[in-house]
Amino acid sequence: MRHLLSTRDLPREDAIRLLDIAEDMADVQDREVKKLPTLRGKTVVNLFFEDSTRTRISFEAAAKRLSADVINFSAKGSSVSKGESLKDTAQTLQAMGADAVVIRHGSSGAPQTLATSGWIDAGIVNAGDGTHEHPTQALLDAFTMRRRLHGTASRGKDLDGVSVAIVGDIVHSRVARSNVWLLRTLGAHVTLVAPPTLLPVDVSGWPATVGYDLDAAIAAGPDVVMMLRIQAERMNAAFFPNTREYSRRWGLDEERLGRLRADSIVMHPGPMNRGLEISAAAADSPRSTVREQVANGVSVRMAALYLLLSGANTEQVRPGGVR
Ligand code: NCD
């Protein structure tokens, strides 16, 4: 794997392989010494043009646990705020010998530009571009679903027949897009649930069913309910009457939580607006995978960096020692 830019064109076998390697990486996380020497001497740059807490520290932890050197570059306080272009930034990173660049950018397509521009030789990982994609989030979500559904016997498995309701601010969500494509590839059925104003204008090309009624979606008994954050920072107009009305109709409150199937799980990529799209009762319930998602994110990102940088693309990771 040269770059990880999207899930839309990620082949099924590559996705399963990445998830399986993430299982091996998760085994390493359970050891007393959580570090592997695999990427010693490699340099990973975290290039973040948008705010992030968990994704940035997750990539940092992943790179460090593989013994890579990590450089954190945030646009604020850098020459980017002086108007330096993406090209000049990329060429600076190239001159510093970056082997991988993990990029988060407000513009959809920025990681693709870096990967195809010829400005830099590094492997590029998309850590969220505009409203386009966030592939490692979808992969960690799939990993979390697979583990909850198949337990320790999840290696090699996909998500065939699993039903997933993705609820909330779909139109602004790169997480929703990456999930829709990956879940399709892995055999799951996706229902998008949102007010019409928070759905993209044309979802006819999306491999998903669309609904406007959260209660109807819950009555259908999905295996997974994935709540999305209301992305107020991307809204320049009113997308719903007010927050009370939104949470009354599309929020996962305690009462709706009680109507979910006993074995279904509740996911949220974070950061959460508690009391808006998700109640504290739902976020903190035993069904919630929110903290597992964060922990699994490190394993999945270790797997992604390993596949990009180890040069061992045909080998499997052995829990006893990654070669
Ligand atoms: C998501 C993102 O940045 O796209 N968060 C994340 O990566 N954990 C979703 C969001 O911001 O709501």
TrEMBL record:
Residues that hold carbamoyl phosphate according to the record: R54, T55, R104, H134, Q137, G270, P271
BP GO annotations: 'de novo' pyrimidine nucleobase biosynthetic process; 'de novo' UMP biosynthetic process; amino acid metabolic process
Catalytic reactions of this protein: carbamoyl phosphate + L-aspartate = N-carbamoyl-L-aspartate + phosphate + H(+)
GO cellular component: cytosol
Keywords: Pyrimidine biosynthesis, Transferase
UniProt superkingdom: Bacteria
Pathway: Pyrimidine metabolism; UMP biosynthesis via de novo pathway; (S)-dihydroorotate from bicarbonate: step 2/3
Pfam families, alphabetized: OTCace, OTCace_N
Binding site for L-aspartate: K82, R174, R229
Role played: Catalyzes the condensation of carbamoyl phosphate and aspartate to form carbamoyl aspartate and inorganic phosphate, the committed step in the de novo pyrimidine nucleotide biosynthesis pathway.
Assembly information from the UniProt record: Heterododecamer (2C3:3R2) of six catalytic PyrB chains organized as two trimers (C3), and six regulatory PyrI chains organized as three dimers (R2).
Annotated NCBIfam families: asp_carb_tr, PRK00856.1
Name of the protein in its database record: Aspartate carbamoyltransferase
Organism listed in the record: Leifsonia soli
Lineage, opening ranks: Bacteria, Bacillati, Actinomycetota, Actinomycetes, Micrococcales
